[in-house]
């Protein structure tokens, strides 16, 4: 909420927050990793009790920080726009006003673990505008401004993380997870806020499209993800 308040003058008050946190399997994996690393230090422990337990404490801090940063992804719905991205220490989410979202491009997504595969981006480096993790099941797809245009903080590593335009209108594809909550909940909240902010066309188009279950087939992306370039014959975009 502290980071959302930075945008109060531009976006107004926060209406609802959707958190895309790691699931039990990911948390268990982090804990198991800490246990294994700590156990290895006892093969040749330190000469004193303090030296023996010190590595375990250090590993606990390291793995705790990893889990903290993995748990930072948010979709924050405000009165005049949305914030997308991580709220972990030292990171600021991207700020996207409703006026910069393409009407008709908002689509709720179920089966979001297939998103990158269907978009033809599986195995590629993480990108600023696609906030999809391996545990993400539900989310929101839309077309809006560039990551650089939505960035309100320092511009670090932009060449590595910012994608090229992927939309049919030369704009950028965005995706944000909604965690355990249905993407339909996010659509309804955004629609109410956008309508109240003076963007009824954006709101109604989002409600009309609703939620789609992704197939993971790249040939379906132009139908299931509005704004994506259609796949031509031979699989060439």
Overall, the morphology is: elongated
Strand order of the largest sheet: 6-8-7-5-9
Residues in β-strands, percent: 15-25%
Could you describe the largest sheet, including whether it forms a barrel? 5 strands, mixed
Q: What distance lies between the first and last C-alpha atoms, to the nearest angstrom?
A: 40 Å
What oligomeric assembly is this protein in? single chain
Provide the residue-averaged pLDDT. Answer: 84
Order of helices and strands: HHEHHEEEEHEEHHEHHEH
Number of strands: 9
* Uncertain spans: 231-237
Helix content: 25-40%
Radius of gyration over all CA atoms, rounded: 20 Å
Structural class: alpha+beta
Give the helix tally: 10
Textual characterization of the structure:
The chain is of the alpha+beta class and 237 residues long. The chain has helices at residues 2-5, 8-11, 24-41, 49-70, 115-118, 147-150, 158-161, 183-196, 200-209, 221-224, and strands at 14-19, 73-78, 81-86, 94-97, 107-110, 130-131, 138-144, 172-177, 211-213. Helix 3 packs antiparallel against helix 4. The longest helix has 22 residues, at 49-70. It is elongated, with a radius of gyration of 20 Å.
